[in-house]
Amino acid sequence: MNTESAKLELPAWLNVVAVFDTETTGLNLKESRIVTAALHLVDAAGNVLDGGKDWLINPGIPIPAEASRVHNVYDKDVVNAQESKDGVLEIVSAIQDYFSRGIPVVAYNAPYDFTILYYEALRHGLNPVEFGFVIDPLVIDKTIDKYRKGKRTLESVAERYKVSLENAHTAKDDAVAAGQVGFAMLRYFLAQDKPVVPFPSSLQQLHEMQTKWADEIEESYSAWRKQDRPDYVPSFGWPIKKL
Q: What does pTM read for this prediction?
């Protein structure tokens, strides 16, 4: 990575972002429940600003052992935690407030968090989030540095962009790291003399570009999977999967 890119000044529309992450009961986007969540503001220098919030939620179902081993939250930890409906309502409302103020929300692998949040809202009879602008560093990384070898987990990409992530799979730490990675990645993108795609001129354009890139990534992955699984069905949709 070009270390000089870290000194680049980003456009004014990227001065501040909200960062969002959840830890849940599993990987099923329709059925998994939120256990912890974090939503914070981060500035372009990577500083966490005042006004954020963290949630510990009783999902209303047992937390599978395999999920607890990942995020270290167990049934005993949520016995007296916030009820699921109240927590989901607060999360949706807080995200909606940032969108209404024109603040983009960063989420690494956005369809995971936002699809689960969408179905959680429906489960509780709540209105889902009406989207503003989303920034997904995973989609951006897979596009601007397409042929880089290695994993694309948040931990791996944080190491690539020299971002500290000491407590992976903790909602706040993952959310903040995703924001810091996003800023570092966009500076790297901006620094390229011959980028694979032009740098966006607005949040609207960045959002639209990611929607297109996400479909292209899924199409490529689907073609690869169909080599040994001809019946593989691609799952399109960003920042919410169409299930």
A: 0.95
